[in-house]
Amino acid sequence: MASGKQSLVDLTGLDTLRGLLAVFVVAHHARWLCWTGQAQWRMTEHTWLPSAIANVTAVFRYGHEAVMVFFALSGFFIHLRAAKQFAVERQCERLNVRRFTKRRLHRLAAPYFLVLFLTFVLDSIGRHSFPSLYVGDTGNALLDQNFSGGNYSARAVIPGLVMLPRSLGLTFGSNGPLWSLGYEVVYYAFYPLWLMVRRHSLWFAYLGIPFICFVIAGLSLGAWLPAVISHWPIWIAGAGLAEWLMLRNHQISRRGGGTQALPKRDVAHWRNRFCLYGLALTVVGFAGCQISQLPMAILLSYAVLGCGCVLSFCTLPTVIGGMKFFSAWQFLGFRSYTIYILHFPLLALMAAPYFQAGGPPSDGWFALAAAIATTLICVAVFELCERWFVHARIRVESRPEPT
């Protein structure tokens, strides 16, 4: 990179986003499993400070929206390399499907299968010692519905072993959040075909295919594969954002002298502008998720929300992105995959004794402690397994600085 110049897009901002999303999902599930709930909590009087804290935690209800942002983020990262080629050359080289598949498996498989094993171990302990939660006998209708749908029958285990959890309708044990990884695996499988379409027709790739997917969503078929396909436009939207940003980066750099790196003053101007665009899209997308009734409108809102979050974080002004606060979240972002796929069975085992005794505590301190403990355990498991399978950039950047 030329001295004094830098790129418009800063990928470390997306590592920050991944960390925030992963911890947000942990907090969402800790609030659900390890706290009696806001409605019941309000039945007794509290002083202003606990009331204020409880009201603030209401933001963690939106765990599903966080997963939708993960979809857009995945599409952005997977398509980024091709997006750079499209921006510069108006075309990209053919994808080496074998290399792409091998790279995805190398990145995802080992931590995933370790988590399946750990889920089985944790669930075995819980089912033997504190069975009420695991057999769906807590009296909480939503919890009982979710846990009764998970077991270790062939319909649950076989899809889990081929990295398509819940594809036959049952969850692998207690680990319900793995459903989104099954969606991602399908999107990875679709990507070579989608990229081939994109190489021949930008409009059909970004409008035709999503329209077909939205039509499938409108049919409300209910089966697993139609549900996966109906969410694919969110992933495609992330890929489209990557292309748009790389094209804008190339166009702006040509005005500044033809290099891919931009003068710092230009970077600051465009990052500020694009970050504001991203924040606006985030607000519009989130509002759409809450007020929309039609499945197509909800999915479109998810796509807007996801792209808004990705755009705002990858164009964070340098003065903000360089703060130590964001460095901490980048640390967790490097470890977000393990945090996401492992956290739920850990939280379930922590909550199970309370449900066996009648229910979780009414105050939220146990939920906070469980979320922190779960995150720390996941970080330790990352060091044991995932660290050795991450891509080179993450492996280098997540290594502690020498003292």
From TrEMBL:
<keyword id="KW-0808">Transferase</keyword>
<feature type="transmembrane region" description="Helical">
    <location>
        <begin position="104"/>
        <end position="122"/>
    </location>
</feature>
<feature type="transmembrane region" description="Helical">
    <location>
        <begin position="178"/>
        <end position="197"/>
    </location>
</feature>
<keyword id="KW-1133">Transmembrane helix</keyword>
<feature type="transmembrane region" description="Helical">
    <location>
        <begin position="66"/>
        <end position="83"/>
    </location>
</feature>
<protein>
    <submittedName>
        <fullName>Acyltransferase family protein</fullName>
    </submittedName>
</protein>
<keyword id="KW-0472">Membrane</keyword>
<feature type="transmembrane region" description="Helical">
    <location>
        <begin position="231"/>
        <end position="247"/>
    </location>
</feature>
<dbReference type="InterPro" id="IPR050879">
    <property type="entry name" value="Acyltransferase_3"/>
</dbReference>
<dbReference type="GO" id="GO:0016020">
    <property type="term" value="C:membrane"/>
</dbReference>
<dbReference type="GO" id="GO:0000271">
    <property type="term" value="P:polysaccharide biosynthetic process"/>
</dbReference>
<dbReference type="Pfam" id="PF01757">
    <property type="entry name" value="Acyl_transf_3"/>
</dbReference>
<dbReference type="GO" id="GO:0016747">
    <property type="term" value="F:acyltransferase activity, transferring groups other than amino-acyl groups"/>
</dbReference>
<feature type="transmembrane region" description="Helical">
    <location>
        <begin position="299"/>
        <end position="320"/>
    </location>
</feature>
<feature type="transmembrane region" description="Helical">
    <location>
        <begin position="274"/>
        <end position="293"/>
    </location>
</feature>
<keyword id="KW-0812">Transmembrane</keyword>
<dbReference type="InterPro" id="IPR002656">
    <property type="entry name" value="Acyl_transf_3_dom"/>
</dbReference>
<feature type="transmembrane region" description="Helical">
    <location>
        <begin position="364"/>
        <end position="385"/>
    </location>
</feature>
<feature type="transmembrane region" description="Helical">
    <location>
        <begin position="332"/>
        <end position="352"/>
    </location>
</feature>
<feature type="domain" description="Acyltransferase 3">
    <location>
        <begin position="13"/>
        <end position="381"/>
    </location>
</feature>
<keyword id="KW-0012">Acyltransferase</keyword>
<feature type="transmembrane region" description="Helical">
    <location>
        <begin position="204"/>
        <end position="225"/>
    </location>
</feature>
